[in-house]
Structures are given as structure tokens and as C-alpha cells.
Design a protein that fits this description.
Strand content: under 5%
Shape: globular
Number of helices: 14
Helix content: over 70%
CATH class of the largest domain: Mainly Alpha
Largest sheet: none
CATH superfamily of the largest domain: MetI-like
CATH architecture of the largest domain: Orthogonal Bundle
Number of domains: 2
Length: 278
């Protein structure tokens, strides 16, 4: 490809990226603005500024609509799920990437295939399994499902990352008398920190926004996660039409994970580049 063609493609790519960023900022700005209006002001003008900032909308969404309990349910479920995902995926990825054994290739292929299976395809079988084991309508059941369905992607990412780590340090630790467990926990796992942070962030963002599984497997109001609780809040709009409080609820669900992502976004880039450059 000629230099001129590359320059043109680069300009087009940057232009599309800027347009996308402007669109996202436009949507986020409108949601925040709408959450600080009265319902009358919301329908009076699309970009009309509110006469008085209606912080009470956030109180209505947080307290009166019980988003506070849904928020903490999501924090518990996502935190424990991500911890379980990393706890299982890291040793599995290490074994698949650093050891040679007979079933290595079929097992690796099994996880790769698992990435392509949509949640909808296993929705009913998992529901029946949770029902038989008494884990339906429980956070523990939802956590187990999240961990199981997130393992293929996480193991695939970490396997590629572990493969890029230098073998010299591992061999030196073995010469010093360290066994496989010690090498993994004290040598290789700290070296894989960028990759672990990357999969932690990606899984946290994905599970925080997850709706389908949480809605299917939890039907008890006080155990709803934030995404399901916000949906229930939306359903109640047909009775009270408190749309501005609904927008406040959208801000509550979006901005914590958005801030978390922006705070650690450099770590994602670091993890990806470290895994591809070694």
C-alpha cells in the first residue's frame, strides 16, 4: 500500500473515531442534562437548560425506587464473579500455555469453541440446572453462571498472555528448587499482572451491564441486580411517568463503571501491548 493511501485511510479512521466520540459524549451529556430537569422541562425543550438543578431526581431513583439495594447487589455479584473468574482462569491458562500433555490441544479448542456459544443457547438448560440444585433466585447461582460462561474468553486471553512470558525466569526458579505451585504463584502470576488487570476490567464492565441472565435467573425483587432493577423502574413509568428519575437511574448505572473503566483504561492498553510485545 502506498504512503498516500495509508495517509488517507489514517485520516478517515481518525475522522470516524472523532465522530463516534462526539456522538457518545452527546448522548451522555443529554442523559445527564435530562436527569437534572423536571418532567415538564424535559418535554418543553430537547436541550433547554433546567431553571433549577433537580438533584431530588437522584434521591427518587436511589432511595424511593430502591436502586441503592440493587446497586450493592451488583457490586457483590460482580466482585465475587470477577474474583472467581480470575481465580479459575489464571491457573488453567498457565497450565495450557506452559505444560505439554496429551489433551492440551482438545481442551484449548474446547475453550475457544465456548467463546462462540451465545448465552441464549444455554439459557433454558442452565435454568433447569439451577432449579434442580436450588440455586435459582440466588446470588450464588448467578455468580456460578457468570463464572462458568466467562471462563472461555478469559482463559483464551490469559493463555496467549502466559505464552509470551519469558521462560528464563521460570527455569531459573526451577533450578533454585521451586516447585510448580511456587513458580506459578510467586513468579509467573506477578509477571502476568497486566494481563490479569486487563481481563478483570473487561469482565467487570461486561458483568456490570449484563441483563439477560440476571433477569432470567432472579425473580425476587430484593435480589435484583442494578440492570434488572433499572428495568423494573422503567416498567413503573407507565403508571407515574417520572422520566427524569429514570434518567437519573441511567446515570447511576452508567457512570460508576464508566469512571472505573476510564481510571484503569491505561492498564488495559498496557496489558494488551505487554502480551503482544514480549
Amino acid at each position: 500500500m502506498k504512503a498516500n493511501e495509508r495517509s488517507i485511510l489514517l485520516v478517515i479512521g481518525k475522522a470516524l473515531l472523532y465522530i463516534w466520540v462526539i456522538f457518545i459524549l452527546f448522548v451522555l451529556g443529554w442523559i445527564v442534562l435530562a436527569s437534572l430537569k423536571t418532567n415538564q422541562e424535559l418535554f418543553d425543550g430537547f436541550w433547554k437548560l433546567p431553571e433549577t438543578l433537580q438533584w431530588g431526581n437522584y434521591y427518587t431513583a436511589w432511595v424511593q425506587s430502591d436502586l441503592a439495594s440493587y446497586f450493592f447487589n451488583s457490586v457483590i455479584v460482580v466482585t465475587l464473579s470477577v474474583f472467581g473468574i480470575v481465580l479459575v482462569s489464571a491457573p488453567a491458562a498457565y497450565v495450557l500455555s506452559r505444560f505439554k500433555f496429551f489433551w492440551k490441544e482438545p481442551i484449548t479448542l474446547f475453550f475457544v469453541i465456548g467463546i462462540g456459544i451465545p448465552f441464549q443457547a444455554v439459557l433454558i438448560p442452565i435454568y433447569l440446572l439451577l432449579l434442580k440444585t436450588g440455586l435459582i433466585n440466588s446470588h450464588l447461582g448467578l455468580i456460578i453462571v457468570y463464572v462458568a460462561l466467562s471462563l472461555p474468553f478469559t482463559i483464551f486471553i490469559l493463555t496467549g498472555f502466559f505464552q509470551t512470558l519469558p521462560a528464563d525466569v521460570e527455569e531459573a526458579a526451577a533450578i533454585d528448587g521451586a516447585n510448580s505451585n511456587t513458580i506459578f504463584w510467586k513468579v509467573m502470576l506477578p509477571m502476568a499482572r497486566p494481563g490479569l488487570i486487563t481481563v478483570t476490567i473487561l469482565n467487570a464492565v461486561s458483568l456490570w451491564n449484563e441483563f439477560l441472565l440476571a433477569k432470567a435467573y432472579i425473580n425476587v425483587n430484593d435480589k435484583y441486580t442494578l440492570s434488572v432493577g433499572l428495568y423494573q423502574f422503567y416498567q413503573s413509568m407507565q403508571y407515574n411517568s417520572d422520566w427524569v428519575s429514570l434518567f437519573a437511574g441511567v446515570v447511576i448505572i452508567i457512570f460508576p463503571i464508566l469512571i472505573f473503566f476510564l481510571w484503569l483504561s491505561d492498564r488495559i492498553i498496557e496489558g494488551m501491548t505487554a502480551g503482544s510485545g514480549k
